[in-house]
Every structure is written in structure tokens, then in C-alpha cells.
Design a protein that fits this description.
Helix content is 38%, strand content 24%. It has 248 residues and is of the alpha/beta class. The protein has a domain of 170 residues: Rossmann fold, CATH 3.40.50.300. The radius of gyration is 18 Å and the shape is globular. The two termini are 30 Å apart. The structure holds adenosine-5'-triphosphate and magnesium ion (MG).
């Protein structure tokens, strides 16, 4: 069985089927992108995987275990962390303290949590923000903090929901490096939702595409960028013309 396995996962909100019979798997060590138009059901799927929402039907397996009916905190304990697309900074915590909250999931020692949090901030090259209050930071930086906090829990599987939204090209380059770094050096399996195509096409080994709650394609970035159904639903003819020859 794969590291993460979804079997015919369906999530309905009343009459709206946000995820419809979605099946795919992620192998340990993979970096998988999840793309699709607004409202396609990407965040909902992360909410189902991470136990934030109960699924309507289907099963989810993580590391050989059926986690379908676990609550969010139980899923987190199993080694799965996620960031939130809409992040609301809580209270008056500094960036460093925020990341320490993540670290406290596996240590009770304040000194150790402090060391680890500093290390993560350095890794993500945001150590200059350590003493800043999270809620006073621009949204883009807050996203980096959520990623740092998730990494602090030392997950084996990290789900990132649009961490590059609102970033400028330089910042995108930096967060791309951060994602590669956590994937390679911290040996985390990563799944990321992203509308910034340069990022998702460049870092992903494989991409899953959703449209209106259904999986419409799955494959390597180069194949996905040429897939007629994906072009029609999401990428558009213009995008493909502008990027012809990339990701080969
Ligand atoms: N808690 C909820 N209650 C009711 N409907 C919801 C809820 N969460 C999501 N939806 C609906 O489910 C569908 C999928 O939404 P979702 O947020 O998963 O899309 P998405 O692919 O993440 O979109 P985006 O790219 O804009 O973030 C949408 O029609 C949305 O309105
Ligand atoms: Mg979303």
C-alpha cells in the first residue's frame, strides 16, 4: 500500500459534491502537486485528508493505517501536517513563538523547542522575522510562518495549501527552494496545492488535477501541461502557447 492512499473519497456539502470519488496515491518521498480551477475541491480534499472534515464516503489510508475517521489532532499525531489557505494569526505571538507551538507537539522542553524553531526559521530563510508579531506581517510572510509551524511538528507528510499565493517572483523562488529543502533535507513527503504554475510544475514529480470535484488527470508535469482536458478546464490555450517547450 502507498504512503497516502485515497479510495473513492466523496465529500458533499448538502447538494454540492465538492469531492467526487477521488482516488490516488502518494508514495513515500514523493512531491505531488494538486491543481485545478477555483472551487474545484482542492482545499476540501486537504480538509478530508487531515481530518478537518469527515468524508461522506470512501477511505483514506496513511502509512498503512485507515485514518478516515480520525479527528484532526489524531491525524496530526500520526505525522501529517497541513497549512491553511486562509490563515488567521492568533493572538500576539511572535514568529518564533508560533513555530515553537508546532515544535511542542513532540517536545516538552522549551529550550529544545526554541532551538528547533530557530533552526527551521534559518532553514526557510526567514530568521530575520523571528521577533516580529505574526499578525502584523504581510499575508505572504504569514504563509511562510504557517509552513514553518507545520514543519515544526516534524511531519512525515506535509500538505501545503497555496503557500505561494500573493508572493512576488523573488519570494516565489525562495519558497520553492524552501519546499525543495524540506523535501530533500528533512525527508518529508509533500503534497501541495498551488495556482502558481511555475512553482508547481517545477517542483512536482507528479500532478493530480481536479475540476468540479472530480479528478480529471494525473501524471508527470510535462504530460499534464499537454493534456487536452487539463488545458480546457484550467491551463488555457494561451498558457500552453506561452510555455511550450518547458518541463520536458
Ligand atoms: N464548509 C463548506 N460548506 C459548504 N460548501 C463548501 C465548504 N467548503 C467548500 N465548499 C464548496 O466546495 C467547493 C470546493 O471548494 P474548495 O475550497 O475545496 O475549492 P478549491 O479547489 O480549494 O478552490 P480555490 O482554488 O479557490 O481555493 C466550492 O464550491 C465551495 O464553495
Ligand atoms: Mg482552496
Amino acid at each position: 500500500m502507498a504512503f497516502l492512499e485515497l479510495k473513492r473519497v466523496t465529500k458533499s456539502f448538502g447538494g454540492l459534491v465538492a469531492n467526487h470519488n477521488i482516488s490516488f496515491s502518494v508514495e513515500k518521498g514523493e512531491l505531488v502537486g494538486l491543481i485545478g480551477p477555483n472551487g474545484a475541491g482542492k482545499t476540501t480534499l486537504f480538509n478530508c485528508i487531515s481530518g478537518v472534515y469527515p468524508v461522506t464516503s470512501g477511505r483514506i489510508f496513511f502509512d498503512g493505517e485507515d485514518i478516515t475517521d480520525l479527528k484532526a489532532h489524531e491525524v496530526a499525531r500520526k505525522g501529517l501536517a497541513r497549512t491553511f489557505q486562509v490563515y488567521v494569526a492568533s493572538g500576539d505571538l511572535t514568529v518564533l513563538e508560533n513555530v515553537m507551538v508546532g515544535c511542542f507537539m513532540h517536545t516538552r522542553s522549551r529550550a529544545r523547542a526554541l532551538d528547533q524553531a530557530r533552526e527551521i526559521l534559518k532553514d526557510l530563510r526567514i530568521d530575520d522575522l523571528a521577533e516580529a508579531l505574526v499578525h502584523e506581517l504581510p499575508v505572504a510572510s504569514q504563509k511562510q510562518v504557517t509552513m514553518a509551524t507545520a514543519i515544526g511538528t516534524r511531519p512525515e507528510l506535509l500538505l501545503l495549501d497555496e503557500v505561494a499565493a500573493g508572493l512576488n517572483p523573488n519570494e516565489i523562488e525562495e519558497i520553492m527552494e524552501s519546499i525543495r529543502h524540506v523535501h530533500e533535507n528533512l525527508s518529508m513527503t509533500v503534497m501541495l496545492i498551488e495556482h502558481v504554475m511555475d512553482l508547481v510544475m517545477n517542483v512536482s514529480h507528479r500532478i493530480v488535477v481536479l475540476d468540479y470535484g472530480k479528478k480529471i488527470a494525473e501524471g508527470r508535469p510535462d504530460a499534464i501541461s499537454k493534456d487536452p482536458a487539463v488545458i480546457k478546464a484550467y491551463l488555457g490555450e494561451r498558457y500552453v502557447r506561452d510555455h511550450a517547450g518547458e518541463w520536458e
